[in-house]
């Protein structure tokens, strides 16, 4: 369930971006997930002081509503190449080569990473000129072009407007940091299905099972034309598989029982990461406390549903309504993992039997500014057999999230009602007798099974994978 909504977090004005980001920055999210699992290693707080920060003024645009308990990160990869990264070619300006939204839900322990292909054409908002950037008018264009014209703030704005997902922070990582991360682990084991020769990615590999060092891993996740059909989508699929392999290796007993390996790994991460200044040590610590263990079944990778753009066969367009449903589910904090469904079934087996809806009376109160929600919910509950005693607005209890209040002895009935909703919590309240009180909060997403509700599984419906899954090996 989602938890409480909170106001958007403001920051300052865009300063200089001091790090060039690597072409495969998804590993930054892997690293953050791993860091979140290391709650017992309190010394890691000193390591994260190495992270470079910059400021973004998020007050410059209208933003989606955030959900407390859900942290959404915009992970950006850029083709800026300077310093130690100059060995990977020369390009002019900052050209985001990869972006994803990493949604970390501390309430249900899921981490969902949604790739946004660089070839995706969308409606971009206008951005004012900033130092080093000329700005742009609102236009249709590739989703990664906003950063080129308006910097990180413009890219942040564009992704929020296109997806309607509230982004709490952004993360970037450079080439050298990625290599150092892999080398700190002693390499990553991968099955290479066929020989690879891709000069553009600085990569030559034989087929078969092998351990890739940092340089080889960087080439593997950057490689586009030397593998598969040469498309960005096929490269994203390989990147997701590599990320899963890397996460499995980091969480293996060999690594987790070696403080030196963990220290070197986190040091490589933090030396190469740039974030907004709102992603503080305290924020990371709170995340670590909330997610002490990472269940690989609930770490998911998926590419946003897409298809060929009708005006250009070399470009992509969002596939609707699947893309919007995914973004809505992410922003509401819905658990899209099959592991979440398994847990709910297990909980159901152990929970005391709940009375039938026909034996349960409910009062429905609308705690939002949206007119008619209480009546709509009451009609739905009546159709499902509940006895609705009345509707209105709350006068006693004003929760920040959708809440089912119950009297002593009614916990099972309240749980049954809450589980029929996309987002709801339960709470015992004094002053109630035999009637449940459903107060609709700002996070209201309707009933489970509604066409407008999430109702999605990353693996079953969207072709995604989890970190626990190893692709069928051909080696």
TrEMBL record:
Bias (Acidic residues) ranges: 338-350
Start and end residues of each LytR/CpsA/Psr regulator C-terminal domain: 360-444
Top-level taxonomic group: Bacteria
Domain Cell envelope-related transcriptional attenuator: 95-251
Alphabetized InterPro entries for the sequence: LytR/CpsA/Psr_C, LytR/CpsA/Psr_CW_biosynth, LytR_CpsA_psr
Stretch list, region Disordered: 337-357, 449-475
A Pfam family of this chain: LytR_cpsA_psr
Keyword list, A-Z: Membrane, Transmembrane, Transmembrane helix
Residue intervals passing through the bilayer: 21-44
Family: Belongs to the LytR/CpsA/Psr (LCP) family.
PANTHER family (alphabetical): POLYISOPRENYL-TEICHOIC ACID--PEPTIDOGLYCAN TEICHOIC ACID TRANSFERASE TAGU
Name of the protein: LCP family protein
Organism field: Nocardiopsis lambiniae
Phylogenetic lineage: Bacteria, Bacillati, Actinomycetota, Actinomycetes, Streptosporangiales
